[in-house]
Amino acid sequence: MSNGYSILVDTSKCTACRGCQIACKQWNRLPGTSTKNFGSYQNPEDLSADTWKLVRFQDGRNGNGKVYWHFFTDQCRHCLSPGCMAESEKGEIIQDEKTGAVIFTAKTKDLDFKATLEGCPFNIPRQNKETKVLAKCTMCFDRITNGLIPACVKSCPTGAMLFGDRDAIVDKAKKRVEELKKTFPNAKALNADDVRVIYVVKDDPKTYYQYAAGK
Amino acid sequence: MTNHWVDIRNSDCILIMGSNAAENHPISMKWVMKAKENGATIISVDPRFTRTSSIAQIYAPLRSGTDIAFLGGMVSYILTNNKYFKEYVDNYTNASYIVGDKYDFNDGLFSGYDKDKRKYDAALWAFKRDAKGVPEKDPTFQNPRCVLQLLKKHYSRYTPEKVSEITGTPVPDLLKVYEAYAATGVPDKAGSVLYALGWTHHTVGSQNIRTSAIIQLLLGNIGIAGGGINALRGQPNVQGSTDGCLLFHLIPGYLRVPRTSQQSLEAYLAPTPKTAEPQSVNWWQNYPKYAVSLLKTFYGDKATKENDFGYAWLPKADDGKTYSWLDIFDEMYGGKIKGMFIWSQNPAGSSPNTTKVVRGLAKLDWLVHANIFNNETASFWHGPGMDPKNIKTEVFLLPAACSVERDGSLTNSGRLVQWRYKAVDAPGDAIPDGEMVNRLMAKIRALYAKEGGKYPEPVLNVKWDYLDDKGRFDPHKMAKAINGYFLKDVTLKDPAGKDVQFKKGDLVPTFGFLQADGNTSCGNWLYCASYTNAGNMMARRGKEDPTGLGLYPNWAWVWPVNRRVLYNRASCDPGGKPWNPKRPLLQWDGSKWVGDVPDGPWPPMADKEKGKLPFIMKPDGRAFLFGPGMVDGPFPEHYEPLESPLAKNLMSAQLNNPAIKIFKSDLDKVASADPKFPIVCSTYTVTEHWCSGSMTRWQPWLLEAQPELFVEISPELAKEVGVKNGERVKVASIRGYVEAVAMVTPRFQPFKVGGRVVHQVGMPFCFGWLIPKTGKDSTTNLLTPGVGDANTMCPEYKAFMVNVTKA
């Protein structure tokens, strides 16, 4: 088997246009939900059964008093050993061998949602309140198995997201970190050896999102 | 844009100021990021730390409305530290010209000011000329009246300390920006300026851009790859509509609107620029060819030499009068306008001082509005504070086809004109705008033909043959008319002097062949060569890139004549060698130019006999450091916005731009340096909504991402107001108030201005009462003042005074 696919999310190139967030909704036919501004550009406030991809916004001041505004386009990491699958005994959650995509099937309605969520280091799974089915990013399984790249990657204007063979993406992530380190000594690739959606950050991941690097 | 989107990647330093490019032009960041990867420095200057600032290496805050002070300080820095590109400045700008004796500047006022009329006599700022009319020059720059010396003197007042006191930008931040950007004033570096509405939305808007032009010329950044002054335009085809005749003082192709004092074609053409400068092309000498060819497009065979080609039928504007959006609503509110067509705009959301706009609309007998959705304008009569029973206005809302439901051209910021194909049929009765005009025109003509009327000739004599075989508007026929035709068989000379023959009905291959004798037609000379006998150039999709600079000469078509970078001959030294051999946009091979389509075929200026100066649109061939064509002064000068936190301009005795028009209706209230409104406010848009949001608020995914009106305020101000993040506040100016969610963020910082703390807040103007129907959101433009830039009348949306309190 090949090593499947991976997505590189280079947050140093992200300008939070949210094209990815909208493209995800468009491809997956997810509805726009009713939201309120809670004092942030971020909206919806959190992932949900209707929102599988969310750009999180975090501003503040760093150690030397300089203002920052960090953007973190949050989604399922498609772990190599998915913690969410610990609860899955009857094929409720599938890890596709060829692509490496972790897929929640309709059978997830039978899973213990809280336990499944607990199993995820990145706080990703959400439940449809009516159907009880669990939902999250599919790595655009229906696209990537038909020769297309994921909708979010396709929409990115700045090249902050890349899709490709895992080995090449891991390599790219590591090279990018080396480049960034010249200017940002704290730059790193998050959990590159354990996940397929690899984030490159310039600074402490907690200044992006509390679960950026896992619980 | 002098350059184009892809070219941003060629830059070494990108100054993004008066623009939040990442927010409002997300695709621009593709190229900004590529430049950054190649080692470019990105600078973001903005009152607020934005999405753009987040990727910039250098960020500097400034108080809204003080860009000229900030940039004037940069001019001074460049001159004082000898950072300017001397050979470029010497040869290609008017730095050496001697300014006439009548020009003067004293404590904020230029010579020639008439206080009662609030107007300058710009004739006093003319250059000194010899007996032949050639500008007098001092190539040694010793003469104190030469432009370079006057420039130095004018901006010597803009010291970093003085600038900082005005802008609130800390001195070290100013110097960091000046140093980084001034480093591009060498032959092998390129600096690009990206600006947008953050510069135009001020009473000094045009002069904001002029200041950047001075900087770009001093640094030799105009005409080169990776350089230029790049206006990032918002609406996808706003460049196209500006090239058409969106602006009140222009007709298609940037030709002047005829004035009442110009009753004959001869009088209209009299101001055509002339030059005595031997090496100047003076391109505008061709004005009569473009004007007559336009008249032939309008009136066809009815336009003859004997009747001045129908010039008399063109409407004339009163001399000295402005007809801007602000003027229209002022007249409407004054009861002088009875009916109005509004096409795809939402002035009840996007115009300043919305109360006046809406009350003006209520005085109309009828309003016709074409749009793809209902909006606050079409429904003004049942908006907040309106009682439909008391409003007589009859409103017609015409459903329009949207951009993907019709064929046509679209001109982007880089002057790139792309043909666009219809993807789907419009729903229901919706039809393209062109078809609406077509049907209206047919009805109006029929009525005039039947009933006569006061002056039927202008309507009945219009040539109108833009219909397909089913009688519908045909965009191809219109595009060909815009390109222009030969109207009889002619033999003309090509640029090399050889005879070329054209047949009646041929499309004109390039504007060099347009004639003033009535033998050619052309609806817009700048678009001549866009649709030729060889086909629709705008529909080309070639991906070749022979220069490697991203010019893609076979992709669609760029005005003028497919030139991708304007003034590109200035990218070479006077001998025709590229200043920067690593990025050769153009070079002279001894007999011709190679590279981009050159700004004219003539040899470079070192050839004293046949060579020409590169700035061909200027009468004397050199770019203007000293710009006597502006109505508010030949050098940009800092003035406070109409509403300012300061009672006195820290730079001079002149508080506001002396040449702005002040409207005097009872609704044009102003509160400057008023303790009741102590906070500076700026308005803007967000990625998720377009302009007033009248299209995007109907889109659930976009509304979900940006659902309601907010105001960004600093933690320091939030503490003073007593408000926490996410709570609701009331934002009030003297003209009105709105409620919004407080977004408390360190991305806004208090400014230290004139020795005291000045707070600034900012809010988007993309929300309104119609949709979503929460009953909470209103129009931010209820707050903004109805005042415009002295040159363009573009409203001052970006700087005015408010108060913020807990709701």
Structural write-up:
The complex is a heterodimer of chains A (215) and B (807). Chain A contains 5 helices and 10 strands. Chain A is α+β, with helices and mostly antiparallel strands and 215 residues long. Chain A folds into 2 domains: 5-78 and 141-207, 2-Layer Sandwich (Alpha-Beta Plaits); 83-135, 2-Layer Sandwich (Alpha-Beta Plaits), CATH 3.30.70. In chain B, 21% of the residues lie in helices and 15% in strands. In chain B, a hairpin with a 4-residue loop joins strand 6 and strand 7. Chains A and B meet through helix 1, strand 2 and strand 3 of A and helix 2, helix 19 and strand 27 of B.
Main beta sheet of chain B: strand number and arrangement?
Answer: 6 strands, mixed
Structural class from helices and strands of chain B?
alpha/beta
Report low-confidence residues of chain A grouped into runs of 5 or more: none
Task: Label the CATH architecture of the largest domain in chain A.
Answer: 2-Layer Sandwich
Number of helices of chain B: 20
Query: Low-confidence parts of chain B lasting 5 or more residues at pLDDT below 50?
Result: none
Oligomer kind = heterodimer
List keywords for this structure.
heterodimer, A: 215 residues, alpha+beta, Alpha-Beta Plaits, 2 domains, 4-stranded mixed β-sheet, two-stranded antiparallel ribbon, 5 helices, 10 strands, 20% helix, B: 807 residues, alpha/beta, 6-stranded mixed β-sheet, 5-stranded parallel β-sheet, 20 helices, 15% strand, globular
Topology:
The complex is a heterodimer of chains A (215) and B (807).
Chain A: E1 5-10, H1 19-28, E2 54-61, E3 67-74, E4 93-95, E5 102-104, H2 113-119, E6 126-127, E7 134-135, H3 141-144, H4 151-155, E8 161-165, H5 166-181, E9 188-189, E10 197-201
Parallel strand pairs in A: 1-10
Antiparallel strand pairs in A: 1-8, 2-3, 4-5, 6-7, 9-10
Chain B: E1 13-17, H1 21-24, H2 28-37, E2 41-45, E3 58-60, H3 67-80, H4 86-92, E4 105-106, E5 109-110, E6 113-114, E7 119-120, H5 147-155, H6 160-167, H7 171-182, E8 191-195, H8 197-200, H9 205-218, E9 229-231, H10 238-244, E10 250-251, E11 255-256, H11 265-269, H12 287-299, H13 325-333, E12 339-343, H14 347-350, H15 354-361, E13 366-371, E14 394-399, E15 408-411, E16 416-420, H16 433-451, H17 457-460, H18 475-483, E17 490-493, E18 499-502, E19 531-532, E20 535-536, E21 557-558, E22 586-588, E23 593-595, E24 679-684, H19 700-705, E25 710-713, H20 715-721, E26 728-733, E27 736-744, E28 751-753, E29 756-758, E30 760-764, E31 800-806
Parallel strand pairs in B: 1-2, 1-8, 2-3, 8-9, 12-13, 13-14, 24-30, 25-27
Antiparallel strand pairs in B: 4-5, 6-7, 10-11, 15-16, 16-21, 17-18, 19-20, 22-23, 24-31, 26-27, 26-31, 28-29
Helix pairs in contact in B: 3-6, 3-7, 3-9, 13-15
